[in-house]
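User: Um, what's this?
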Amino acid sequence: MAFAVVLLAGGAVACGEGAGSDVANEDPVDVAPATAVAKAATNSEDIRSLRYRITGMVPEKGRLEAEASMNTEPLTMGMEMTAAAQDGGGQLEVRFVDEVMYVGGSAVDSEKLDGKGWFRADPAGWGRGAVDNQSYGVLPREIEGSPVVQSTLLTGAKDLRMIGTETVDGTRTRHYKGTVTTRGLLAARKGAVDESARERLVESLDQFVGLGVSDALTMDLWIDGDDQAKQFRMRAEPDGKQAGTGGGPLDLTVLFLDVNQPVSIETPPAEDTTALADGAQGS
């Protein structure tokens, strides 16, 4: 509801699949797929900051393209998402700092901003579990979760396999693929070898639920030479239980651009913000 109030038009514009192809299938990799994916999941715990790109389609909003930066401690995020040109155009900028969400950009209805540059809303949450995220309908729920955690979902796949070697954004990677289900993540959590892996799988399961898929999630993961996730793609059908889903498939590709490089998410000046609720009441 809030999203419809503050924006001139809904929707977002598409980008490509995001998967650098050139499958070489050259020399075999000695490491078993399950071991390689588990190692990348373990290494994800060392990510303190990330700049990433999202492209694809979500059930609620259709096609989208976004670039974002985040810190894990404290958890902050800034994102720019391009709105569909056929619906009025413009760019949406969203920031999460200190449990407050700020929304600005040319896609926002300037008449409802009352001369300010940003809407604000709190309490707001991003990058947490399915229950704790709150973006007031501004962001599709599929991108409310942390991409760092989402990149570890493939550890719950039983049909995990290596596809080949590929170049992604100029980086040589190994491409793995599998099917993720709630049952598989629960089984992986039960069989976790240590407490750290068990806690990571609890987070993965929580964010899997937040994706709202009907049953199974098909996932591709590209891992670089440092045994870290470089890119992942998620595809599934929506469960249809969430209000306003609007149907359509989930098909998102997330590309990690920079890892552990300095990221600063600034809070807009208080005098340049107005409460999201005020804009809604003025509609």
Remarks:
- The longest helix spans residues 195-211.
- Confidence is low (pLDDT under 50) at residues 8-28.
- The domain at 2-12+22-274 is CATH 2.50.20.20 (outer membrane lipoprotein receptor (LolB), chain A).
